[in-house]
Design brief:
The two termini are 29 Å apart. This protein is of the alpha/beta class and 141 residues long. The strands form 2 sheets. The protein has a 3-stranded parallel β-sheet with strand order 1-2-3, with helices on one face. Helix 4 crosses helix 5. The radius of gyration is 16 Å and the shape is globular.
């Protein structure tokens, strides 16, 4: 479930929601400080962090957020903010040992070269043995 409550109510309402459901909760598209969600990560109230590199201020801060999430087994699903940020996120998250998913919005632009892409990595990978594989398949329009 992505951003199930309004951003300003996350700290109060997501812990309540966590007690009511076992559905994975992803939150944080608008987060800009690691302190915005530190308590939610430490208490295991979210399953996936949705913060993204441009919103948190750059690579150094994002690496600190990754370390926080790794410590508490919280996955990363960064919010799509553009192709340049996505390229930087791919490089940052390539070593993340937990679950990683990417959101990408190509709008109505279809790519004849990459009509559909899936990048996956086993959750059991460690930074020293992380494997990233890309699977491409053609889908009929």
């Amino acid at each position: 479930m992505e951003d199930p409550v309004r951003d300003e109510h996350f700290l109060e309402d997501i812990p309540k929601l966590r007690q009511m459901t076992s559905v994975p909760i992803a939150a944080g598209e608008e987060w800009g400080w690691r302190w915005d969600f530190n308590k939610l990560v430490e208490n295991h109230d979210i399953d996936f962090n949705r913060c993204t590199l441009p919103n948190v201020g750059g690579i150094t801060e994002y690496l600190k957020i990754m370390a926080l999430c790794e410590t508490h087994a919280v996955g990363m699903v960064p919010h799509f903010t553009g192709p340049v940020a996505t390229a930087a996120l791919v490089h940052c998250l390539a070593t993340y040992p937990g679950s990683v998913l990417f959101e990408y919005n190509s709008g109505d632009r279809r790519s004849p070269t990459f009509p559909s892409t899936r990048i996956s990595r086993p959750a059991s990978s460690t930074p020293t043995s992380a494997r990233v594989s890309a699977s491409l398949w053609t889908s009929n329009p």
